[in-house]
Amino acid sequence: MSCNNSFQTNYLFSPIYYADDWKCKILYDLATWKNGLAFKNKDFSKAGRPIIKIAELKNGITPQTKYTNKFFDEAALLKKGDLLFSWSGNPDTSIDVFWFDLPEGWLNQHIFKITVDERIADKKYFYYLLKYLKPNFKAIASNKQTTGLGHVTISDLKNIIIKLPPLHEQKAIAKILSDLDEKIEINNRINKVLEEIAQTIFKRWFIDFEFPNENGEPYKSSGGEMVDSELGPIPKGWEVGRLGEYISFVKGKKPKNIIENKIDGYVEYLTIDVLSNNSRLFADPEKMVIVENKNNMMVMDGASSGTIYFGFKGIVASTLAKIEVINNKLNDDILYFILKYYENDIKNHTTGSAIPHADKEYIKRLSIAFPQDNELINQYFRLSKNIRNQIYIIIMENQNLSQLRDALLPKLMSGEIRVDLNNDQIVLKNED
């Protein structure tokens, strides 16, 4: 087995390694790769454990998920914290490594469950190793692509040679990268709490009609006058409008040339994966649909149709739409919380069977009551703006953390940057 830095026909090498003291290994030999099961229609039931496909790994349990109450090979049973590798699908979006972070489920075919051996310090290191090798996997899958799908087989895994650092250095590398990921996750939890606070206030004011009256008391429960409407009783002086009177959809487009490294003139291409801080893509903005930092976007196609995003500047991907405000009674801040309030409802009313699509007409028909009193609207504008500003700051911090992680990943995994184990510092290795 050769382990130099030149490409050979029998092996696919990961990018150039600088760490001469690391050991040459075949990737496949460092773990057990358990393939998922091929389920049949007779296995499905209305309840039980979910059958985990690539859609569930990327988007969580969705309405399209199948379930089974049967018991199969326990090696295919997934538990929180399992390491998975999706080896079949779209080379750009599906060939990837994932942590299983859902309820127990059964592993579907085309996904490997990975158990590392004693030469690997822990699953975290192997996770980042596979992330590092993702360009290699993409190249393999693309070369075998048929009808838009590609695959990485066990034979391919046996032909990937890597250099492996000692266990203590593996742990140090994994800790640096996982600390960044954990900070991103903490930030995500903070934003979730901020969104819940904003949603609670929105529901209390605009759904329950318990906004503060002139005495600072909750309007409805303090005896505020209500009048009949198509939504039922609403406060006097309020009116009912449909979302279609306030918004329009501008569907995104797919650029001709999409790249992973930024060049002059190119801007971020906002796919679901990019919006989730899992990757970065760039494209030429000419003739594309562009969003600014606080414009709202909705996923229009696929398993996560109806999901709302904001906080990113760039090109709207073809599976998303920019949602523009066309009525001055709203702005992007309050529209975001309206859409978030209806988000689950929108997700449960998609069209299409094989591929779900957000139903624009259904969304436009959704009704909401608004006060004619501009001061009350302005009061909520200010409040929603403050909360969205805090969320936006954290989103930007996560973008910076993700970029730092992605910049360090290849350098740490290759040995170009070494970890100083004496004082836990990252140091640039002297190549001389």
Question: How would you characterize this protein structure?
Answer:
- The protein has helices at residues 54-59, 123-132, 134-143, 154-157, 167-207, 272-275, 332-347, 360-365, 374-414; strands at residues 12-13, 23-26, 31-35, 49-52, 67-68, 77-78, 83-86, 88-89, 96-99, 105-107, 111-116, 150-151, 160-164, 226-227, 234-235, 238-242, 247-251, 258-259, 267-270, 282-283, 290-291, 296-299, 308-309, 314-316, 320-325, 367-371, 417-420, 425-428.
- It is an alpha+beta fold.
- It has a five-stranded mixed sheet with strand order 18-20-19-24-21. Strands 3-11-7-9 form a four-stranded antiparallel sheet.
- A hairpin with a 4-residue loop joins β27 and β28 (425-428).
- α5 (167-207) packs across α7 (332-347).
- The longest helix is centred in the middle third of the chain and has 41 residues, at 167-207.
- Mean pLDDT is 88; it is low at 5-17.
